[in-house]
Amino acid sequence: MRTLLRGGRVIDPATGFDGTADVLVSDGEVIAVGPGLPSADDQVEIDVAGYIVGPGFIDLHSHVHTIAGQRLQAMDGVTTALDLEAGLMPVERAYAEAAAAGRPLHYGFSASWGSARAKVLAGIEPDANINTGLSVLGNPAWQRSSSKTELAAWLSLVEGELAAGALGVGVLLGYAPASDPAEFLALAKLAKQAEAPTYTHVRELVEVDPGTPADGSEEIAIVAAETGAAMHHCHVNSTSGRHIDRVLAALESCRAAGSRVTVEAYPYGAGSTAVGAAFISPERLKMKGLNPTRVILLETGERIADEGRLLQVRAETPGAPCILEFLDEEDPADRTLLHQALAFPDSIVASDAMPVYWQNGANESTEWPLPPGGATHPRTAGTFSKSLRLMVREAGVWTWLEAFRRCSYLPARVLDEVAPGARTKGRLNVGADADIVVLDPATITDTATYFDATRPAVGVRHLFVAGTPVVRDGQLLTDAFPGQPLRGEPR
Fold first, then answer.
1. What is the pTM of this model?
2. What is the distance between the alpha carbons of residues 114 and 135, in angstroms, rounded to a whole number?
3. Which CATH number is associated with domain 56-422?
4. Are 489 and 418 in contact (CB under 8 A)?
């Protein structure tokens, strides 16, 4: 069955088109775009006058591996949700399990640098599970530098994952901040040889930790220049904090010199990770000018009272998800810092979406609306709609065309070399994938808060994944599982 979207404001960031037109899709592909396309008996016609029609959002940084989480992201306009910062290992198992369970959105994974190191350095067998990965983050056994033999062993594992279809390499460097910089350089050389991007959570900045083996922002610039690898800087807002001016200037300089460095950001002043992460230790919080009260346990809502309680929680449940407040969104100066990261030229919107947890210990639900008591970070449900609200509707910094460049087109282009299937995404012209979002420009906004984080965004009127409706008239369709794997080309 063909679908005709009639009379919307169509935006194609690939060609720069922004005007009233019809869009006709068939068999998962856009087959016509233009005014006055003819009606036909064999097609469903939807009046989208007054709405914006554009390519669905591509999230390069989503740790959501469940139906529940993907449904929240669907209501936020996302059609492709990829876990590229951390990745999963073994990647074949990750793809197989996602396919078996069914997914509303397209999905994909990078090779997990952290899991490869944990297997070689600590004997921890990876199981392609995000919750296992969170529990490993606080284990110091894998965070040390590698011997030459160990380095060769885990590089070989990463190479095998790329050969199996991983979408590049996810590098949680900030979770092993004292590891030898030479290892990162060796990894980038491998990635360049495979023509695969890296996606890096950088180490601490020198302003935060004068003893760091390498400044986080400078390291990624230097390694990109030295190797020629395509290197993606994850959540520059959270790793830069109040030093965002210096970091963005350094990244702009390296890009102007020809280095292949891309940047992402999300519009929140708090991050989320495992409480056992190296950078949430009391001493590292102090380096950032923070204290333990800025840490909130996600599943219980407990705000850590003091250093003693933080040490206790890190020792007893290092994998417990938490929220870390690094900026105050109510403070105008801090809010400006967040806007800077989003406004940076070619900065990509990416959510760092987290799993949804319930107090009964479950991390999946096929109910919709989601049952009460779910806990996650609000960025899971609202990153893209909040970015549009802030940067288009309120600040007027982005046009709608620019918004779709940053949410759809640019993220797809990060993947072009490693994944041929990405080349028809992030665009809305003939031959493009029928991954389409139809949104109301007057009402699109986030509704999730830190205390009620599973409230879906509003304003997405229709969402099509491979031409199949997942959201219709603002309502999620619970029987829609059209998501397909996006895989790297075997190397």
1. 0.96
2. 12
3. 3.20.20.140
4. yes
